[in-house]
Amino acid sequence: MQEGAVLEMRGICKYFPGVRALQDVDFTLREGEIHALMGENGAGKSTLIKVLTGVYEKDNGEIFLKGREGAVNIRSPQDAQNVGISTVYQEITLCPNLTVAENMFIARTKSKGVNWGAMNRRAGEILRSLDIPAAPTQQLGSCSIAVQQMVAIARAVDMECKVLILDEPTSSLDEQEVQKLFKLMLDLKKKGVGIIFVTHFLEQVYEVCDRITVLRDGQLVGEYVIEDLPRVQLVSKMLGKDLDEMADIKKEHTGEVDMSESGVVLEAHQLASVAGIKPFDFQIRKGEVNGFTGLLGSGRSESVRALFGADRTTSGTIKIGGKTVKIHKPLDAMKHGVGYLPEDRKRDGIVGDLSVRDNIILAMQVMRGFFRPISRAKAEEYAQEYINLLEIKTASSDTPIKSLSGGNQQKCILARWLLTNPSYLILDEPTRGIDIGTKIEIQKLVLKLADEGKSVTFISSEIDEMLRTCSRLIVMRDRKIVGELKGEDLTQAKIMATIAGGESAS
Amino acid sequence: MKAGRLEPREKQSKLRSLFRRQIFIPIAALLVLVIFNLITNPSFFAVKLDYNSAGNPVFTGNLVTILDNASELAILAIGMTLVTAASGGQDISVGAAIAIAGSVTLRVLCGDNARPETLQAPIIVAFLVCCVASMLFGAFNGTLVAYFKIQPMVATLILYTAGRSIAAWINNNTLPNISEPSFGYAGNFIPGIPVPTPILIAIACMIVIALVLKFTTLGLYTQAVGINPNSSRLNGINPAFIKFITYVILGLCVAVAGFIKVSRFSTINYSVVAKDIEMDAILAVALGGNALSGGKFNMAASILGAYVIQFLTTTLYAFNVDSSALPAYKAVVVIILVVLSAPTFQQKLTRLKKKPKMAAAAKEGN
Amino acid sequence: MKKILALLLVCAMLFALAACTQTNNTTSDTSNNTTNDTSNTDNADTNTDDTTEDATDDTTDDTTSGELIKVGIINNDPNESGYRTANDADMKRVFCEENGYDASFYYSLKNDEQIAAAQKFVQDEVDYLLISAAGTAGWDSVLMDAQNAGIQVILFDRTIDADPSLYVASVVSDMALEGETAVNWLDSQGLEEYNIIHIQGVMGSAAQVGRTGALDEKVAANDNWNLVTQQTAEWNAETAQQIVQSVIDSGKEFNVIYAENDDMAKGAVAALDKANISHGVDGDVIIMGFDCNKWALEELLAGRWNYDGQCNPFQASYIDEIIQGLENGQAPESQVIILEEKGFDATTITQEDVDNYGI
After folding, report:
1. Is residue C16 one of the residues assigned to a domain?
2. What are the backbone dihedrals phi and psi of residue A483, each rounded to the nearest 5 degrees, phi first?
3. Does the domain made of A5-246 have the CATH classification 2.40.128.260?
């Protein structure tokens, strides 16, 4: 083992049917460092993490840990925990209906009995020492996602882990919460914990990390000290190509929006839904890309869900193409040419066990109706068309969608809606948890659709992404629309000010 | 991804993909039973053309018996597969529902008289009424499951408990007995046709479901709803309705099975007719390698599973297995089959087979 | 939300139960014209009301002779079988107001529920407790309570494992005798060789044990009596058909089918018919059944079957006799009264027998 290393992985190989997920990958983590693991979707980051935590069995290679003779054999997540490797996943894997303290100590006590008093006291101490705003006896489900995330970390820390893996911990946090998390990470770093940080947010990497390991196509690209690797180079290493295409993609976009009277594609008046958004007006024109922005919980997703009929509307009217239409359920919206890519891909988007092909044709099939199934040959043709068009990486169109990487899953959902040839496409966080390459592809696609005369609503947590694609931004706060920005007002500062509200909006 | 470099392995993978195919387990089970029977009794599969006591030509032999007796189960397996796929649970009331279906049929045919001289209604009317009644009971279960979101096993427990009493009540607790021979055609033979009618009915049902799955999107919808109801809803499917409709379809299957059952003996015994058939139907679905938690399904495998169960029963009878030990034998075979088809076991198996090849591939890769 | 669902479920269950109780009531209405409304209302009472007040009323009634005799009747579910249906109808026919009885009925196939019902009848201070027990064990304490309360207990149809001093009489069928009668009849047919397909009822039930016992003994004792197969069809016609079918398909020789009830005999005959094997009088195979269902006796009359053993469900008149005797201060002649049970031969059966003994 190298001097100061807490973890060393050597020559790790992992195969799946038809795919080499990891090939001869080395990875070293030093004591008291935050180490970013970077790569596109499908590069092998998740696989490497899963091998390390015992979820997958490696086909080849060795893992060494500080303080242990020889290679360790990690066969299950339990093994990983026992040797001091803890993981906090993107999706919270704790039990929301137990208390914070129970979650921190669940499945850890050796004795059968539980000393509740001692448990709550100890939990309180840890929470205080890490400055986590939660009470031990509070139900976990009542905490914000960020706090839940922190509780998960606290649990890991208390298990005296030497290696802490944070798999996309920030993707559902807002800026403030991210800062709190970073502070926690830096505290842990000082205590000598080695942290592996998996994320897609470049800024965050440069904010907290000491080193970066880059993977591409299941192979190691290299390990770098953060100061030696400028962003552009990092991105090009991840993509394996130079980044001319990362230049301002909006340039090619003609930006023609049909301003004529007949150009209004969809218009909502005083719309409100059971999800609790305040009545709002909304309008989108042919060829326009607009966006909803605001903090998490500001109502941006709920607004578009109301437009699509995903949540039952309680008041208001929707006009499509100038005619008032009734949208009670998603199918109504679909029949009027509206498509909706939901925010939570796993929960609302993919149909996990179905093949890529069935997932792609699903919406089109439903619109065709119950008695007009798409023939297998035709379905295959559609699927291949979009697999090629969007460069979806999959072994075949028969592969279950759940075995694809996140970005490729998202492309399939996009393909699903593109296939229905909608006149108005709502994309709610289409780029979340997706690598940079795919992000840019999706942004380009959005602009291309607009050029073709379609209308798009684009929602993203990343403001610069919105700036690059949208010509008009609707800002929401506390479940109502608080501003609309376009043209010269579309700057980061202005948007921030509007989101924050109050006098600072000068 | 890098498919080009993996080509040499593709040839072998055809054989292996057969192993991984869902239908492999029931086919393998069937083959084992066939071979076992052939070894112990080479004439097990002999089919003869005889004449029955009414003077009509009939095929006889173990094979015919198996196909004949498995008909109701195969028909039920169709509906049970759909219910399982869409709602992620099973209907345990099918046995009781068959009692109701049979009782309704006899009630229509007999009227108030338990032993009528002549039929009170045409047989086809009785069958249609039986279908409607069964579909209503299916709709009752479906409503509880789809709209009140009660767990399928709990929801169908109601009819499971009450069904046989309801069946008895329909006929005022009498045991009707029909002497009209034409009523027995559906459960026995149509004069002149040597193949038992239940086999023909089962085949007809399979053709119908095959056509339905081919010419409607029922298969895609039930699977999508079973896997991810949220996503299905956002793609314009009405998950509750799809769940509901699968229970109604199962109701129709129950009606057909119930009609065959009462036709076999032209009478009914409420407490024993189709006893425990719900468990066999669920087992058929499981033997077909379908996840009982819903989602993807393979209809052919389920139906094959039903025939495997009947094959097993008939084999055990043929070997004159001690009657008290019969369920135990059945249980042992079932355990083996279910374990073999369990995904974790299959994964282990493929992993075991793959290991040496993986090492070779790794070298080649380097 | 979950609570609402639970409530709904309870409602649904209640609905289902209501359907069941209604079943019983309707049955009594239609299958027996002499049943009056009293039995129905009483039935409902025992199920729902706490009848302490009624009970006190009745004790005062009790002292004056000529009033109704209050009986609590615990029976198995009449849907269980045709036998039970006939049994229940017979009880309802005899224990009605016209005959001077105020009868309450309780049905269950579960022993513990029956015992609880008996406890309730004791509390209600009935004069007589009539029990057809679902299980043989666990009755001692409740019968003791009955004795202390001065309630006379009469067992019918089935006996229990309790001290005989706890009940006045039991009116039962002797299943072993039924089997013996049947086997003796078969012996009297004088075949050279007996190759028997034996289809049993649910293993362990009194009827199965009794009817199997006699045959087993005979087969063990005689070299020319062989069992081709001996399997349980659990009272189910279809299973019986499958068992016989598998024997036919295997090509084994047989000339007797001994089925422990009529349904199973019917299933066996269906298999024979399919294979064109003649049966009944002058046929190749002797068909034997039990229970004397009307349709089964008709089969006998038509010569398609050979023998049907009676299992007499009509115990009510015997019980009535005992009660009338007790009311007049006469103890029954013997504590165990075994019902007279016949065996019918196809060659001697008459239409009259069918009408009288068919159930």
Report:
1. no
2. -175, 160
3. no
Rounded average pLDDT over A277-286: 90
Give the residue among A82, A78, A105 at the shortest CA–CA distance from A94: A105
Task: Please identify among residues 302-321 of chain B the ones whose CB lies closer than 8 Å to any CB of chain C.
Answer: 313-314, 317-318, 320
Does C134 share its domain with C274? Answer: no
Distance CA B17, CA B10 (A): 10
**Chains adjacent to B (≥3 CB pairs closer than 8 angstroms):** A, C
Average pLDDT of chain A is 84
Q: Write the pLDDT tens digit of every residue in A300-340.
A: 888 999 999 999 889 999 999 889 999 999 999 999 999 99
Q: What is the pLDDT of residues B212-254, one digit of tens each?
A: 999 999 999 999 999 999 999 999 999 999 999 999 999 999 9
| Contact indicator for B1, A393 with CB cutoff of 8 Å | yes
C20 in B contact zone (CB under 8 Å): yes
Residue A88, beta-bridge partner list: A166
Residue contact C243–B317, C-beta within 8 A: yes
Q: Are strands A338-341 and A219-225 parallel, antiparallel or unpaired?
A: unpaired
Select the residue from C87, C246, C261 to test the B interface by mutation, using most B Cβ atoms within 10 A: C246
Evaluate whether residue B84 is within a structural domain: yes
Q: For residues C52 and C77, state if they share a domain.
A: yes
- C245 contacts C273 by C-beta, under 8 angstroms: no
Which chain B residue's Cα is nearest to C278? B53
Q: Is residue B341 part of a domain?
A: no
State which residues form the domain around B285: 58-320
Domain residues for C183?
175-311+343-357
b/e for A438-450, b at 16 or more Cβ within 10 A? bbbbbbbbbbebb
Q: What's the structural domain count of chain C?
A: 2
Task: Tell me the residue type at C19.
Answer: A
Are B153 and B92 contacting, i.e. CB atoms less than 8 angstroms apart?
yes
A215 in helix, strand or coil? strand
Mutation site, B235, B238, B296, B355, interface A, largest A CB count within 10 A: B235
Write down how long chain B is: 366
| Chain B contact present for A358, CB below 8 A | yes
Q: So where are chain A's domains?
A: 5-246, 257-337+423-431+452-506, 344-421
Are A86 and A159 spatial neighbours (Cβ–Cβ below 8 Å)? Answer: yes
* Nearest CB partner across the interface for B174, out of C31, C270, C275: C31
- Encode pLDDT of C86-136 as tens digits: 888 899 999 999 989 999 999 887 888 899 999 999 998 999 999 998 888
In a domain? residue C204: yes
User: Would you state the structure tokens that stand for residue A357, as one six-digit string?
Assistant: 């092909």
Please check whether residue C212 is in contact with residue C180, taking contact to mean a CB–CB distance below 8 angstroms: no
Mark whether C169 and C293 lie in a shared domain: no
Q: Is position B158 within any domain?
A: yes
Tell me, what's the ipTM?
A: 0.84
Q: How confident is the model at residue C45 (pLDDT cuts 50, 70, 90)?
A: very low
Quick: pLDDT tens for B168-210. Answer: 899 887 888 888 889 999 998 999 899 999 999 999 999 999 9
Whole-structure pTM value: 0.77
Terminal C-alpha separation, chain B: 17
Domain identity same for C160 and C207: no
In a domain, C191, yes or no: yes
Q: What is the CATH classification number for the domain harbouring C67?
A: 3.40.50.2300
Whole-angstrom distance, CA of residue A67 vs CA of residue B140 = 64
Instruction: State the amino acid at position A73 in one-letter form.
Output: N
Query: Given strand A472-477, what is the order of strands in its sheet?
Result: A338-341, A424-428, A455-459, A289-293, A472-477, A480-486
Same domain for C179 and C317? no
Domain with residue B204: its CATH number is: 1.10.3470
The class that CATH gives domain A257-337+423-431+452-506 is: alpha beta
